[in-house]
Amino acid sequence: MDNYSTTIELKATAEKIYEALAHQIHLWWSEWFTGASAQVGDTFTVRFGDHIHKTIRIKETIPNSRVIWTVEDSLIAIPELKNQTEWIGTTIVWKMEQKENSSLLQLTHVGLHPSVECYAICSGGWNQFIGSLKLFLETGNGTPYRK
């Protein structure tokens, strides 16, 4: 199965990308952020209103290189979806690579593939928030979900 994956080039250092993933999720993904996201074993929850949330555990961190998250709990309570917990048990892998004047960031969501019911909605969501992360890293102002 082809998992959702995207790679973007950023006018930011790998160190800055790592900081955004470890300490600044509320500035590009969702302002409804609780928990900790910096060290292996930390857990955090992001919410998108009252009906969508994800609780994620940090599985691996290699500063300025890779971050791996596992989804421990998730609810996407929208009427279009029969299976509203499809993210549970999936893995989100962030890889960053420093180039001369930019960095590459690859996001792979292992378990989010075209046969998953929420694929169209969820891949669209990732595209939106990867755009927000790019804006945040390049301008200082992302477009996270706002409370």
UniProtKB/TrEMBL annotation:
UniProt xrefs under InterPro entries: ASHA1/2-like_C (IPR013538), START-like_dom_sf (IPR023393)
CDD domains (UniProt xref): SRPBCC_CalC_Aha1-like
Highest taxon of source: Bacteria
Residues annotated as domain Activator of Hsp90 ATPase homologue 1/2-like C-terminal: 11-137
Protein family per UniProt: Belongs to the AHA1 family.
Record protein name field: SRPBCC domain-containing protein
Organism of origin: Chryseobacterium sediminis
